[in-house]
Amino acid sequence: MSKPLSVLEEKRKEAKSRLEKNGYFSDTKIYVGMATCEIAAGSVPVMEVFQNELKNEKNIYISQKGCAGRCNLEPTVEIYQKDKEPVKYIQVTPEKAREIIKKHIKSGKIITEWVGK
Amino acid sequence: MNTIKAFINDKEYTIDSGLTIMQACDSIGIKIPRLCYHPKLSISSGCRICIVEVEGMRNFVASCSYPISEGMKIHTNTDAVRKARKDILELILDNHPKDCNACVRDEVCELQQLASTIGLRERKFEGVRREKYVDDSSPSIVNNHEKCILCGRCVKVCSQIQNISAIDYANRGFDTVIVPAFNDKIANSVCTLCGQCVNVCPTAALTEKNYTQDVFALLNDKTKIKIAQVAPSVRVAIGEAFGIPAGNNMEREIAHALKLLGFDYVFDSQFSADLTIMEEASELLERLNGKGKLPMITSCSSGWMKALEQFHPDLIDNVSTCKSPMSMMSSIVKTYFADKIGRKPSEIANVAIMCCVAKKYEAKRPELAMEDGTPATDYVITTRELAWMIKSAGIDFKNLKGQDFDAPLGLSTGAATIFGVTGGVMEAAIRTAYELATKKPLENIDITAVRGNEGIKEGSIEINGKEIRVAVASGLGNAHKLLEIVKKDPERYHFIEIMACPGGCIGGGGQPYSGIRDLPFDPKLVSERAKALYKSDELNKIRRSHENPAIIKLYDEFLGKPLGEKSHKYLHTHYKQKFPKGIIRKSKEK
Amino acid sequence: MEKQLFTDKFSYVFGDQKFFKKQKRIALKNCGLIDPENIDDYIYAGGYTALAKVLTEMTPEDVVKTVKDSGLRGRGGAGFPTGIKWEATAKQQNDEKFVVCNADEGDPGAFMDRSIIEGDPHSIVEGMAIGAYAVGASKGVVYLRAEYPLAIKRLQKAIEDARKENLLGNNILESNFSFDMEIRLGAGAFVCGEETALMNSIEGKRGMPRTRPPFPAVSGLFAKPTLLNNVETWANISSIIINGAEWFSSIGVDKSKGTKVFALAGKITNTGLAEIPMGMTLREIIYEVGGGIPNGKKFKAVQTGGPSGGCLTESMLDTKIDYESLTKAGSIMGSGGMIIIDETACMVNIAKFFLEFTQSESCGKCVPCREGIKRMLEILTRITDGEGKTGDIEKLEELGNMIKKASLCGLGQSAPNPVLSTIKNFRQEYEEHVEQKMCRSLVCEKLLTYTINDKCIGCSACRRACPAGAIAGLPKEPHTIHQELCIKCGKCYRSCKFHAIDKTSVAKEQK
């Protein structure tokens, strides 16, 4: 019988290749908070903005995430870009999301006044 | 058995292991005050009256459930424990009406007795009380929520002993109540009205529906012929309500007292028990000869009949068509006896004194009514209600000389006496069936296999070379178990006796409340009552129903023969499936 | 490994350094970092390694020993040593055993369990599988409250995905170990978070606590040996297995190891969930992680442990967060609720608020809780209504102490805590309410007096708003309030646009 650890190692490789296929290793990754609290704060339309406006973009991976525990700052959106420090936008609205796409994602300019202080 | 050493109130004791603290204390003569605890029921530790202090434990410990262990140091009577118990009881009483002397359980109330034991001398909190709500929808049982202290014994006896689960807790916290399913009324529920909940209730939250005022009014009605009948079990229990030890047969005192109360005739349900045996034994022989379904099941117990219609409709054809002795008596009184005294049935009022609260419901069954639609049995009162009426009318029950039941419907045999105890109907039926079938006397008429306090009993007897296998169940929980066996193996028995109440009618829901500080519904009490009935049987010169001269005369003059045309008209009935709340109607049954 | 960047990420993020820096994320390690609905994310982030590890290299006894040595204690409230529970359940000889996850998070304001299940559901699946292996169980049940639909959906998906990957089911990861689990929904009774009531509820019975002993480890769900832990406890397991007992016990203090997730709520700048190493002081949590009290108000009290915890004062802010210290200070760890109260709050009213909750959530089984808490609440209500009587405070203490010692389950045993601790720490406020009919924080409506000051321009807005007809005055002239008619509803106060109505509470003369 093969050892569970090696079975899991196989599974991890498969998981990685599936993630790869789905664009998980893109240069830009956007995580939108989608726990109940985030949804209550309005994260669903924010998520829709990112998904709709960026649906034709390659090399961008959009995912939901759980709650990181920052209630009063929700909805939160984190943007990871290769070789850069992650950026967390707070109290994001659909309008802010569009701006973030325009300025940060497309032009590389962090909108510092919307970043958690 | 292994023993352990433990300290109770600073004294060292050697105690059997595996006991709870309460049991251990009982064994050394310390009876810790208790309320919701009952040895026959599961332990819920809800009332917290039986708390004790155990050294090393932060909180009080409920002694009813906590196991005693080696070296444990227990204190049952410290200031802190006494104070906490008092506080807890105060909390219970603060949510309970202050109407003790206007309460039906005055003097026989466990809560009242506990308050005196604990030494409660004041009421502390004036606040919101439980909502007033009285469910008197059923003809048998009344549920007064205001008096309920939520000890849960009724819930447990109904589910654990009777396997009916007609009532349970609903709502939360302070709003908790005990109600039938869907918060509906008892009348619409699956409650079989056996009254075991009434037996174990420590207060007047669950009581029988009281008809004593109606009966007093009837007794003052000069236009009526007032006729009483007395069930076998009443006579061996009623004494307890007057401080007479359990197990004394008071039938002569009862007959005397009923006359003093104003009844014109006092008859004995034992007469109609003999009559039931004539019909039922004949029915059994018919079924054994291929006419009708086997096993045959008895039909005397009203609680069981309601359970049958709700939970075992598939067995309706197995149940004897005989009416109960009470209903047979009422029928015969309003026909045969009415003729004899030259009165119309409408001029006669039948009052049945029963150990049972379900009989109140039976009396109202439309299929048992007289031809003109009026009930055959006008009122049913319990042993408890009669005891109160006797006291209330100023009758000195203890010192009565006593007298006989009236003829002809007051004559009975020993076979009828034992109807009151589980297995008794079976034993009486076998005595008669054997002799009717074989035309030979039964040598040993004490059929001990069906005697005793066990919930389910089995036995067999040979009749004309054929082995007749019988079974007896008392308590609906046991009945349910037995019937499950029957449903799997229909050939296993020929004849089955079922009584709704544990121990049979002597353990009925209408029997006197236990004495001061005694456990309600104590199995010991029930066996004392049983002993008294068996003793009366033994002392009776006639011990076979078919030898009762009054019965022979009744058949000669009126009925003809068992299972004859008149018998069918007056002594037999039929049962129908019923659908109370909670029983799901299958489409084909609509 | 890329994962490393992820775990340290919190402190990289702008603006959140203070909030995250002092935290140590173990139970919440993946929350907010992975896609909770994608098992690949979890596996790629190192998930199920702990399960594979126990199945490959460890005997059940090793696992129990590791958990025991780690010093982990139950995160649901009472803080019972987890390893001892595991050991007791493992010791039982029985064909069938259960592991149960208590996810009936009922404390108002506490949401760490929801957050974990919504953000990292596989950590629960993995933790429970490890627990099942350790104690010899083959079935698991998560008792999850129906009020958490998203958590239900995500956990259900996690269970199904894990089954597909053979991380649940027969012969997990090709080993001899088989285990599966299901979700049972709780219908929102607070008491069902009590372990024995929870098991009754799973069995389809009314959610009322059972008497203990027997403990669940001996006779639990369906009378089988049952290992029951809270969500946060389960979420700690995989990290303990991977990093070892020594690593875990190096975090925290003396008898309280590891971390605890707190839900910061109330009058605090950073509301949210914070996972804090045991031993941090309340001051650090409130002023550093939590960012202090907003709007320039003064700190008054902190209530820890949910509705049955106690209120601690400023002088206790250096209390360390661990089970023993909190208990000693007069509160409890509980499930990790932390409500910060500022000077605007009335402590009597706060106590009443918590007692209202426990009173309505009492199951009704035992007398002290069912009847006693109701009476305590009645006394508190009359105190806040200005009808308190001399002796009421003593009555509350007496009743509260009895209920604590005599109740059947943890709900009743802890329900009086908010009252007893506020009496202990803020007795003067109680006395003011009872003796002087005064509420210094201007919270208790019935103790307030409304008067009109000289800013009144006679606009009549208050007169129109008053439902009692207690305000008189001609238009454009200053109005007055007839105190004997005033019902203290506060409508005038809210209707006035000119700050012309004063709300005061002054000591009344003692009768």
Model description:
The complex is a heterotrimer of chains A (117), B (590) and C (511). Chain A is of the alpha+beta class and 117 residues long. Chain A is built from 4 helices and 4 strands, in the order H-E-H-H-E-E-E-H. Chain A has a 4-stranded mixed β-sheet with strand order 2-1-3-4, covered by helices on one side. In chain A, helix 3 (43-53) runs parallel beside helix 4. Chain A is globular and about 55 Å long. The model of chain A has no long low-confidence stretch (mean pLDDT 91). Chain B has 590 residues and is α/β, with parallel strands linked by helices. The N and C termini of chain B lie far apart (58 Å). Chain C is α/β, with parallel strands linked by helices and 511 residues long. Chain C has a 5-stranded mixed β-sheet with strand order 8-7-11-9-10. Chain C is elongated and about 90 Å long. Chains A and C meet through helix 1, helix 2 and strand 2 of A and helix 2, helix 4, helix 5, helix 8 and helix 10 of C.
Which key phrases capture this entry?
heterotrimer, A: 117 residues, alpha+beta, 4 helices, 40% helix, 17% strand, globular, B: 590 residues, alpha/beta, Ubiquitin-like (UB roll), Alpha-Beta Plaits, Rossmann fold, 3 domains
Could you provide a short overview of the structure?
The complex is a heterotrimer of chains A (117), B (590) and C (511). Chain A has 117 residues and is an alpha+beta fold.
End-to-end gap of chain A? 54 Å
From the alpha carbons, calculate the radius of gyration of chain A and give it in angstroms: 16 Å
**Oligomeric state of the chains?**
heterotrimer
Beta-strand portion of chain C reads 5-15%
CATH fold call of the largest domain in chain C: Rossmann fold
As a whole number of angstroms, the C-alpha radius of gyration of chain C is 26 Å
Overall pLDDT confidence of chain A: 91
Distance between the termini of chain C: 75 Å
The strand order across the widest sheet of chain A is 2-1-3-4
The number of distinct structural domains of chain C comes to 4
Q: How many strand units of chain A?
A: 4
Largest interface (C-beta under 8 Å): A-C, 41 and 53 residues
